[in-house]
Amino acid sequence: MRQPAGVILAGGQSTRMGGGDKGLLCLGDRPLLDRVIDRFQPQVCELALNANGNPGRFVEFGLPVVADSIDGFAGPLAGVLAGLDWAALQGHTHIVTAAADTPFFPCDLVPRLLDAAQDKPIALAATPDPKRGMARHPTFGLWPVALKDDLRQALRDGVRKVVQWTDRHGAATAEFSADPFDPFFNVNTPEDMTRAEGLLR
């Protein structure tokens, strides 16, 4: 498999942060999105941003911006589809996605997902969870461009939960440590931002 392209998912509505773009909020002295790009760019062959609305607000980051093609904020799967459609036009066979509000995700995310996939078409990141054993993080995954039309139809049929679709096709799990904290911790609320500030130190 060739090195995948990367797609940062920033198409959510950020309701728990009062709306707007979480990725543009500053963590320390830099936007969240800037920190995500720094972690992601070295791991992929090309990088794009999935976001809706006016793409001009992201111009400083120098990334192509791809919007959802499914109307009505259909969730992360719509962002995955937008990324797959973009990747197909660039000639890529796979993408890896990462969330724009998760500044501490692993620097070896992509190789670990590739290693986990083996004979499965999709791989999702996961960390230990005291209640569930392993908790999957469905916005952090490896996705084949070959499934883009299948995903498009699933979204048209009303599928919104990521694992509802991935479980149809078989998804491998790449397991990451949650010590000293879960690297997939994401900034959803002002309290989360305060916690993230503490993790920078």
List keywords for this structure.
globular; 201 residues; alpha/beta; 6 helices; 9 strands
Structure description:
There is one protein chain. The chain is of the alpha/beta class. 30% of the residues lie in helices and 23% in strands. The protein is built from 6 helices and 9 strands. It has helices spanning 32-40, 76-90, 109-117, 148-156, 162-169, 190-200; strands at residues 5-9, 26-27, 30-31, 47-50, 65-66, 94-99, 122-129, 133-144, 171-175. The strands form 2 sheets. The chain has a 7-stranded mixed sheet, with helices on both faces. It has a two-stranded antiparallel sheet with strand order 2-3. Helix 2 runs antiparallel to helix 4. 44% of the residues are buried. Mean pLDDT is 93; it is low at 14-18.
| Mean pLDDT level | 93
SS field, number of helical segments: 6
In angstroms, what separates the terminal alpha carbons?
38 Å
Q: What proportion of the residues form beta strands (DSSP E)?
A: 15-25%
What order do the SSEs take from the amino end to the carboxyl end, as H and E? Answer: EEEHEEHEHEEHHEH
C-alpha geometry: globular
The profile of the biggest β sheet is: 7 strands, mixed
Oligomer: single chain
